[in-house]
Amino acid sequence: MEVGFTLNGKARRLDVPAHWTLLRMLRDIAGSTDVKHGCGEGVCGACAVLVDGVAMNSCSVLAPQVDGATVETVGGLAAGGKLHPLQAEMVMRGGVQCGFCTPGMVLSALEAVRIGAAGSDEEIRHSLAGNLCRCTGYGKIVDAVAAYRDGEAPDDVPADAGEHEHRPEGGGSAASPGVGVGH
Question: Rg of the Cα trace of the chain?
């Protein structure tokens, strides 16, 4: 079955079996390995993408369902060699450790801020409830989302910033490769 959609700003037409998930189509055909395969059951959020601006677990969406839609992965956020400001905050505030949950976490947080569902720390935590992180304890992630929401995020962090060790102010752990930029 042919599925036509926009992926990170580029029109795509892919031939996929009708029973394939969006996750499998993105990773196996489109080459978007920034979309992580976690639980495969729609409960961990590692595979989250934005479909027409709404965060969805791509393991729970059939590929044909995005025909005509716009799909954003974390790999499409960095522009002009610079991290998206939310990605930059995740790096700067130590909201990334192993990095596996980061792509889904960033996209879910971005949706929450865009729709006004991140007005308080409690709302941010609620918005991220479908994204599991075993490393950070969420505090630094919530801090990063709040700083982005409040316009404090830097806009000049190079897209390869997550590939180098970085110690945020006040300590914390080093950012790991990828930082949700498509690795």
Answer: 16
Which two tokens mark 136? 């950070």
- Same domain flag for 49 and 105: no
Q: Which of 148, 64, 164, 163 is nearest to 107 (CA)?
A: 148
Cα–Cα distance between 57 and 159 in angstroms, integer? Answer: 25
pLDDT by residue (tens digit) across 4-58? 999 999 999 999 999 999 999 999 999 999 999 999 999 999 999 999 999 999 9
**Is 21 in a helix, a strand, or coil?**
strand
Contact (Cβ atoms closer than 8 angstroms) between residue 91 and residue 179: yes
Looking up residue 136, the CATH number of its domain turns out to be 1.10.150.120
Q: Are 123 and 117 in contact (CB under 8 A)?
A: yes
CA–CA dist 125, 109 (Å, integer): 9
Residue keyed to tokens 């930029």: 181
For the chain, the domain total comes to 2
**Are the beta carbons of 20 and 58 closer than 8 angstroms?**
no
